[in-house]
Amino acid sequence: MNKNGYFGDFGGFFVPEILVSALKELDREYRSLSTDMEFADELSHLLETYAGRPTPLFSAKNLSKECGGAKIYLKREDLLHTGSHKINNALGQALLAKRIGKTRIIAETGAGQHGVATATACALLGLRCEIFMGEVDVERQKSNCYRMNLLGAKLNVVKGGSRTLKDAINEAMRDYAATSDDTHYLIGSVVGPHPYPTMVRDFQSVIGREARSQILSLEGRLPDALVACVGGGSNSIGLFHPFVADASVRMFGVEAGGKGINSGMHSASVVKGTDGVLHGAMTLVLQDEDGQINETHSVAAGLDYPAVGPEHAFFSRSKRVEYRAISDDEAVSAFHHLSESEGIVPALESAHAISFASKLANDMSREQSIIVCLSGRGDKDVNQIAAMEGKL
Ligand SMILES: *Cc1c(COP(=O)(O)O)cnc(C)c1O
Questions:
Q1: Quick one: 20 and 141 in the same domain?
Q2: Do both 77 and 22 map to the same domain?
Q3: Distance CA 365, CA 223 (A)
């Protein structure tokens, strides 16, 4: 990344003038805190004693045996407090906000998972919290709305536009432009204008740092491949980043292929997207010829986003990371398969990564190993799948 927040041709700072000074201040503050040992120690302490780090690296022997081929290891982010990797970033940014004197946090959420992680971090650190959520999403995610309220957050229901995530993002940006003196905008993935893609990546890189030292002590060598699902791209970048310089390690980002990548009903922004600006960054976007954003679809709500973090666009162009799509049906089948073979119910998002890794393992040899980021647990998805299968 260069100093204006570009990764090759991607990234940058495409925001209305009214946001420029707030983002420049955030960039300055983040740069100075990122070398502050006291801040790093405080965050590590919270990650250990509150969130549950380090997470185990589990050798999935049953799954590996069935796939035949490479050994599959699961990085167990599903075991963290609140059920996914999102807490790593929520705690990092909330602590940063507190250190730089902000008293109020805003965030937007689609499925509600990032809203819950943010409300959790704010409850812990004594920060006021307001969550923006589209009216349609509020209807679909009632229990997460209740959880956010329970944690002391105020929910702002967005009634404009399509009343979903992208409208909630617009509303949060508008609020931030007016309130940045006392407010921090806590973005949930490696998306948005500089410095968010870098800052969120740094907070999530704890996943890859731990995985690297764990695999070295278990296998005595680096893994041959890394696999993670890509929505905005934060759990994947977090796993990949500490291995980027290791040329022998192949990396695979797995996107939501939905009902098929030629069906128009998917969220495969890298596999099918084109260069464009969305939410403050130049990146790969699912859009029509006029630059209007396409409707997206995935069985996994956390992957249902029409763009991807700019660093992924860069890794795709430079070919350091390979991107693949896994369909809804393949993900649901992996959701069942991991539950039965290892007694681990994965989040539907993570099930995309499991599905791809199972195929990849089969093409590799027994001496080789793969680390899959199990980004979250599937408890949140059990009712949805049971209803889809007519079992409720
Ligand atoms: C939100 C979410 C994702 C997608 O977000 P990334 O920023 O791409 O990591 C993946 N898995 C789970 C469990 C999630 O909650």
A1: yes
A2: no
A3: 12
Query: Ligand 1, atom 7: nearest CA belongs to which residue?
Result: 234
- Ligand 1 atom at shortest distance from the alpha carbon of 190: 7
- pLDDT at position 3 is 67
> 303 falls in which pLDDT band (50, 70, 90)?
very high
Instruction: Using the mean position of ligand 1's atoms as its centre, give its distance from the Cα of residue 137 in Å.
Output: 17
Q: Which residue's CA lies nearest to atom 1 of ligand 1? A: 302
> Do 194 and 223 belong to one domain?
no
Nearest to 228 by CA among 245, 247, 198, 207: 207
Within 17-125, strands assigned E span 57-59, 71-76, 104-108
Question: Which of 165, 182, 200 corresponds to the end of one domain?
Answer: 200
Catalytically annotated residues: 86, 108, 375
Which token pair is 375? 């980004």
Q: What is the pTM of this model?
A: 0.98
Residues with CB under 6 A from ligand 1: 84, 86, 113, 189, 229-235, 302-303, 347, 349-350, 375-376
- Distances from the Cα of 365 to the Cα of 75, 224, 235, 247, 361, angstroms: 21, 10, 26, 19, 8
Cα 279 to Cα 357: distance, rounded to the nearest angstrom: 31
Q: What domain range is 379 assigned to?
A: 53-83+205-388
The CATH number of the domain holding residue 267 is 3.40.50.1100
pLDDT in tens, 181-219: 999 999 999 999 999 999 999 999 999 999 999 999 999
Ligand 1, pocket-test mutation among 77, 234, 344, most atoms within 8 A of CB? 234
Query: Which tens digits make up the pLDDT trace of 108-138?
Result: 999 899 999 999 999 999 999 999 999 999 9
Residue 277 lies in a domain: yes
User: What is the position in ligand 1's atom list of the atom closest to the CA of 237?
Assistant: 9
What's the total number of domains in the chain? 2
